[in-house]
Write a structure and sequence with these properties.
The chain has helices at 3-14, 28-41, 45-54, 64-86, 93-117. It is mostly helical. The relative contact order is 0.07.
Length: 118
């Protein structure tokens, strides 16, 4: 590149509205999916990616992994109690049904929360 070309390039980029650059890495499959979505949108790749990144709010929930883990453990314990109740070794079937219903509701809410972050 000649000195003149280098000066033109610096001048050209300094006049740009968006001077910052972000580089992402993608697999071949991800790249093709993005390309198809860009083509379908009829936007430039830059506009498409900016709109995708800026028009979607990301909520970060601290400790969600711990909450999911504890909920799984509760589910395991509930299953063990249910098995004992079905074998006639404990009598708490009414309470277990109530707890199971509430646990299902918690799982649905957790899934919704996790999916909204994706």
């Amino acid at each position: 590149m000649s000195q003149e070309q280098a000066e033109y390039r610096v001048e050209k980029t300094s006049n740009r509205k968006r001077q910052k650059q972000i580089v992402i890495r993608a697999t071949d499959k991800e790249f093709e999916q993005i390309k198809k979505k860009v083509e379908k949108s009829k936007l430039t790749q830059n506009k498409y990616l900016l709109q995708s990144a800026l028009d979607k709010e990301i909520n970060v929930v601290e400790g969600i992994k711990d909450l999911v883990l504890e909920t799984k453990r509760i589910g395991i314990n509930l299953n063990q109690l249910t098995k004992l109740a079905n074998q006639g070794k404990v009598d708490c079937s009414d309470e277990l049904e109530d707890i199971n219903g509430e646990l299902v509701e918690v799982w649905q809410l957790l899934r919704q929360l996790i999916q909204s972050q994706v």
